[in-house]
Amino acid sequence: EFMQASWDIEEVQAEGIQHLASFVKDKSAFPYRLTCTEVITLAMKTHVDSLDLQVEGCTLLLEILSQALEQGVMMALDESVASCLLQTVRRYSENEEFLSMLCTLLMMVSASEIAAANLRKVGIIPDLLSILRRFLHNDKICFSCCAVLWSLAVSGNNADQAVLENAFPVTSAVLHKHLQNGVVAESACSALWALALQGCLMDSDYEPTAALLLDALRMNPERAVLVQNGCLALASLVRLSETAALAILLDSKGSGIELIKDEYHLHFDEPGVAEALCLLMNEMVQYDEVMLDMRSQRMEKLLSEIKLWFPFS
């Protein structure tokens, strides 16, 4: 009430946020999380030119959302909150340090399907792509933005198709730049998978993207989630074009089939990896020429192994 009575006074809002920060760790404050979030974002929206207030508000929102996620609660923030965050993104689009924090916040917000839909509705995707282009070198920003893109693309609809098509080359550039950073590569593979599911590719994208995803698998073999998401992304490409399937077989750095076999044997006890691999194989055998090559490389032996290892799946 103290904050709501004096929206226009920056000092009141800053002091209010500081007081709220001292309360939120108390369990008795849990029922008021949504109200707190709305009040904080309104203060940020009203005083968008105050970087100090933006940083304090963002820090407190991160704390509230972290606590909610720890308890398994998804906070479905409404369109006004999404609009406020977009306004802040645009006002500080060149402040790398603050954007790093803000993009982490967006990633946590987008974990909720409703909040992700609201972020899409207010038109945040072009801003995310602009941030990625400008700060391609920043691994933290790339990780967060790719995670947000994954959330937005997975729950996207046809209205987003044109803007999502612009996301594909940018996300590919992120993966290419951070191939050796497993955390960022994992996030980029997830985003590419979601974008491929939405059909956001040009014909010329299939072969280089398949090669890029194979490189990500080669460089990060120990990361089960990356292997899983990489195989799912490859499966989506293969479903769309035989070119992608042939690119896996004829990759210049070695047989993609042999690579996939190696990855499976490394993660043979991970059902997610096995399932993604089977999905990829299932897409590849839709093409006669590809299936003949897979037979010659004795893929049925590997599939039999998987069937024996996961008899009840």
Automatic annotation (TrEMBL):
What InterPro entries does the entry give? ARM-like, ARM-type_fold
* This protein's UniProt keywords: ATP-binding, Kinase, Nucleotide-binding, Serine/threonine-protein kinase, Transferase
Query: What EC designation does it have?
Result: 2.7.11.1
Query: Under which main EC class is this enzyme filed?
Result: transferase
Catalytic activity reads: L-threonyl-[protein] + ATP = O-phospho-L-threonyl-[protein] + ADP + H(+); L-seryl-[protein] + ATP = O-phospho-L-seryl-[protein] + ADP + H(+)
Reading the lineage from the top rank, the first entry is Eukaryota
One molecular function GO term is: ATP binding
User: Can you say what this protein is called?
Assistant: Serine/threonine kinase-like domain-containing protein STKLD1
| Organism name | Elachura formosa (spotted wren-babbler)
Question: Which gene is this protein's source?
Answer: Stkld1_1
